[in-house]
Write a structure and sequence with these properties.
Radius of gyration: 17 Å
Structural class: alpha/beta
Number of strands: 8
GO molecular function, one term: pyridoxal phosphate binding
Distance between the termini: 33 Å
InterPro entries: Ala_racemase_N (IPR001608), PLP-binding_barrel (IPR029066), PyrdxlP_homeostasis (IPR011078)
CATH superfamily: Alanine racemase
Low-confidence stretches: none
Protein name: Pyridoxal phosphate homeostasis protein
Strand content: 15-25%
Shape: globular
CATH architecture: Alpha-Beta Barrel
Function: Pyridoxal 5'-phosphate (PLP)-binding protein, which is involved in PLP homeostasis.
Bound molecules: pyridoxal-5'-phosphate
Keywords: Pyridoxal phosphate
CATH class: Alpha Beta
Strand order of the largest sheet: 7-6-5-4-3-2-1-8
CATH topology: TIM Barrel
Order of helices and strands: HEHEHEHEHEHEHEHEH
Mean pLDDT: 97
Helix content: 40-55%
């Protein structure tokens, strides 16, 4: 009987397949395992299997969970994928290695200040409200050039752009648009694609995919 793949192996196989079709090198795609709402017991098997990049969406939850896990897996990288309040910027800079949700001028200022104070600069993705949705986080497409310029002026290391496309509609056009916006703004990284659409995102240039449910199962 064939050995059953675990979820991490399945995701790796799907990444490899999508990269092959897109003629891309799988090393260009970073899998961010989004472990929000999952506890240390759920996370540890992935660490033991070699996964080293994880995503969390709340600073406080990450502060509670990760320091202990990182004692045994010191080379783990933590990415903040959720909205960041300016008053949590310093805490975020302490704990995280990358922020995917830089989306406004006030946060550029708060992060620049936190970087100076902590003598540490971490890479940031600018989140774009790619579907121009009323409720969604992310800067508008119109505001993007200004925000990119402000981040560069404040010595914020920019990794690229990030988006969460509207739900229940084909994501490919939104991924293609983010890819174009990144190119127009001279940015190399594209954080796009989640459990339901990461293969599509890879075909359209994703460099960072943020996958939760496909690795950990449904969240409570
Ligand atoms: C929760 C979350 C994900 C992961 O979503 P899944 O559908 O569970 O893969 C990715 N990105 C962000 C910003 C999230 O908040």
């Amino acid at each position: 009987m064939e050995k059953q793949q675990n979820p991490l192996e399945t995701v790796h196989a799907n990444i490899a397949k999508a990269c092959k079709i897109a003629r891309r090198d799988p090393d260009e795609v970073t899998l961010v395992a989004v472990s929000k709402k999952h506890d240390a017991a759920a996370i540890r098997p992935l660490l033991e299997a070699g996964q080293r990049v994880f995503g969390e969406n709340r600073v406080q939850e990450a502060q509670a969970k990760w320091p202990e896990l990182q004692e045994n897996f010191a080379d783990t990288k933590l990415h903040l994928v959720g909205q960041l309040q300016s008053n949590k910027a310093e805490d975020a800079v302490d704990l995280f290695d990358c922020i995917h949700s830089l989306d406004r001028m006030s946060l550029v200022k708060a992060l620049a200040k936190a970087f100076d104070k902590k003598h540490k600069r971490i890479e940031c993705f600018i989140q774009v409200n790619i579907g121009s949705e009323e409720q969604k986080g992310g800067c508008t497409i119109a505001d993007l050039p200004k925000l990119v310029a402000a981040a560069r002026n404040s010595d914020i290391p920019l990794a690229g752009l990030m988006c969460i496309p509207p739900q229940d509609i084909e994501p490919a056009p939104f991924f293609a648009l983010l890819d174009k916006l990144a190119e127009d703004n001279g940015l190399s990284g594209r954080s796009m694609g989640m459990s339901g659409d990461y293969e599509t995102a890879i075909m359209l240039g994703a460099t960072h995919i943020r996958v939760g449910t496909a690795l950990f199962g449904q969240r409570a």
